[in-house]
Design goal:
Blueprint: H1 2-13, E1 18-21, H2 25-33, E2 38-42, H3 46-57, H4 72-86, H5 92-102, E3 103-108, H6 112-126, E4 129-132, H7 149-159, E5 166-170, H8 179-192, E6 195-200, H9 210-213, H10 218-222, E7 226-230, H11 235-239, E8 244-249, H12 254-262, E9 267-269, H13 276-286, E10 289-291, H14 302-314, H15 317-336
Parallel strand pairs: 1-2, 2-3, 3-4, 5-6, 5-8, 6-7, 8-9, 9-10
Helix pairs in contact: 1-2, 2-5, 3-6, 8-14
Length: 337
């Protein structure tokens, strides 16, 4: 239904250039029909795209960057991500032809300091110019979210905590931990003995109370050391707070990872599905992340969660590397401005 309306809009506006998301391949076709050049914007990043293009163009050939090689569980997640795209309702042949023929440039939301070699390889595979548009987090204006009473309470709670000794735990808005994962995460945090703020979300229609969601006695045992927040918290403000010493993340949203790097916060990676394992391996390669390893059954366990959290928060090595990467990205931004 969107295509005819979009086509009419493009015809009416006659833009000089159309920028569209990688998953809207049909937009390139519409642009081509109106003799308008188009450029793809790739929010998922050059690493995952280079991996997928490699699989399509060189099937059976080993990916040339072993640092992000996927194990059997992670590969299943990535294949599922590819299948979602392939099975989407679209005119694949015509749209792919329009994409490859009409796009000479691909914009990526990153920087060469983070993904340079993967950009170069993607350019080689696609015969297109890959242009990084930089980190989309404005350090000069970190506190631009709307505050409510809950936000004020969260920030007041953080103000009373020691520098770098609190972890922020959030798995995004599209992945929901199951009961077993919640229990392992909760006991892992309890065993780590660090202060934490945890944003918990449930699927629509499956909402439950805090006491019901967590292991028996967990809330009482952690007491003031832990703060549980339902649904939403001001992430940018939290990550930019001096008490935060680590970010437990599924590595699903590249903007969240960039925020963490830009604010100098080490990441504890717990990738759950889709492109998250590859995102995690990329930032591990950069030295700004420690990944929580799954067991032989592909599950996260409390002991490993606890160990990695303590290693990141108590140690200084990862924080130092994040600071170095943060400065290199800032210097590149200053040279461009």
């Amino acid at each position: 239904m969107a295509k005819p309306n979009f086509s009419n809009l493009v015809k009416s506006l006659q833009p000089d250039l159309l920028i569209h998301d990688i998953f809207q391949g049909w937009a390139a076709k519409v642009a081509s029909q109106h003799d308008i050049p188009s450029v793809t914007f790739m929010s998922s990043g050059a690493t995952m795209m280079s991996y997928f293009c490699h699989l399509l163009i060189h099937p059976g050939v080993k990916f040339p960057f072993p640092a992000i090689e996927l194990d059997k569980f992670e590969l299943a997640m990535a294949v599922g991500y590819m299948e979602d795209y392939k099975n989407a309702e679209r005119d694949a042949d015509e749209e792919d032809e329009a994409f490859w023929g009409n796009n000479e440039i691909i914009l990526v939301s990153s920087s060469r300091e983070i993904k340079g070699k993967y950009m170069d390889y993607l350019s080689e595979l696609t015969n297109k110019e890959i242009i990084p548009i930089g980190v989309l987090v404005d350090q000069d204006y970190p506190c631009n979210q709307v505050y409510d009473d809950d936000s004020e309470m969260i920030m007041e709670w953080l103000m009373a905590k020691d520098e770098f000794l609190t972890v922020f735990v959030s798995f995004g808005s599209e992945y929901f931990l199951n009961k077993e994962e919640i229990e392992e995460m909760a006991i892992g945090l309890e065993l780590s003995n660090v202060t934490f703020i945890w944003v918990v979300r449930f699927p629509k229609g499956e909402e439950m109370g805090i006491e019901e969601a967590f292991p028996k006695g967990f809330i009482e045992r952690v007491g003031e050391r832990g703060k549980i927040v339902k649904k939403w918290a001001p992430q940018a403000e939290i990550l930019n707070h001096s008490s935060i010493g680590g970010f437990v993340s599924h590595c699903g949203c590249w903007n969240s990872l960039k925020e963490s790097i830009d604010y100098g916060v080490p990441i504890i990676a717990m990738p759950m599905h889709r492109d998250q394992p590859m995102n995690a391996k990329l930032v591990v390669e950069l030295g700004v992340v420690v990944e929580v390893k799954r067991d032989d059954d592909g599950k996260f366990r409390r002991e490993e969660i606890s160990k990695v959290i303590r290693d990141v928060v108590i140690g200084e090595n990862v924080r130092r590397k994040v600071g170095e990467k943060r400065e290199s990205v800032r210097l590149r931004k200053q040279r461009r401005s």
